[in-house]
Amino acid sequence: MVRQFGQYDRHVRDVIRDLWTRLRKHVPGPVRRRVLPHVSGAYYRVFPERHPDADPAGTGLRPGDAHYRAYVGPPGDFDLIAANQFTLLTAAGLREQHRVLDLGCGSLRAGRLLIPYLGLGRYYGIEPNEHLVHEAVNREVGRDLVELRKPTFAFVDDFSADRFGVEFDFVVAQSIFSHTHRDLFEAGVVGVAKALAPGGFLFATYVDGPTSTGSGWVYPECTMFGWSDVEAIANDAGLSATPLDWPHPRQRWFIAGHPANQEQMLELARVIRSPNAATSATT
Q: In terms of CATH architecture, what is 76-281?
């Protein structure tokens, strides 16, 4: 049965991806969250060899494919991007007592490292696609750990970080603003600013380049922003921002925080450097 569909593999995958893109852009969030799991179910009925049960790592799949690891980015980088975020936050001073918001936590790529590290109830995640979190809990984190650490999730498609009623010491938004136009980038930073603790910081990525025009979400494609626009977005939200020379395979990191903490941000940017940059500075 699978073999007779082989010649149509790419076509069917592209049709489903186009459907997902249209759902993300034009269908209200609650409806979209109910429909997407059924779309992925149809995909797996056609291609059972690509189900996470058959291939836990999502080998060879493209960003945006139905597999929970591929849905959030290149599945071959799942572990690398998880470690990239976790190492950055701990290098910036993250300890178990801090509160962390994982903005767009997806399939808990970073969450699978942060949840066991942080103390009871200290991990929070915002994610519009509820099924990704459930899949990650079942396949990456485990329900026993969730019960032990009690992370908190909000399955919404906005950036209402203040909905939890707490202030965050660290907010991470990896590969979120790289898929938004300026309107949602601004909304995201404003949402974070409302819930950022007095000494808290936002660590986020973007794709550097001529600023894209348009509105809304773009996925799995990317948008680009020049640094001056990124800095202006942070300033308009009442935050200061500075670029970080921290490694990432495709994007650039920046840190944002309250203006009173600008000196600390600059010191973090000086200390937290890419290993390659550190090597270059000494040679």
A: 3-Layer(aba) Sandwich (3.40)
